[in-house]
């Protein structure tokens, strides 16, 4: 995504030793793309503290939204995606309270479309359609 939307090239990817990052297909992809890989020591999440904390924040927000909505666990992925969407549109201390989405896209963020997660929604079908 970084390379598709900017002129920047990903140089290094740091990850834990999770299976999704250690398979041959991913290794070959990184090699062909010229991406250097770094692995943290197993069972030491503190080596990747910022990412681990963000994972926790996303999980806590998604859990809170799903429980508050009363939706079943099948909506977990939707809750996670919504949590990330909202985090990217909220103030960020490293960005001096700027919004990550505005910094990334160079466009003002609009909030008028936001609704409560899990609220009732209706599809409008025009008669001419």
Automatic annotation (TrEMBL):
Gene Ontology MF terms: nucleic acid binding
InterPro entries hit by this protein: Integrase_cat-core, Retrotran_Ty1/copia-like, RNaseH-like_sf, RNaseH_sf
GO terms classed as biological process: DNA integration
Domain of life: Eukaryota
Location of the Integrase catalytic domain: 1-108
SUPFAM superfamilies: Ribonuclease H-like
Protein name stated in the entry: Integrase catalytic domain-containing protein
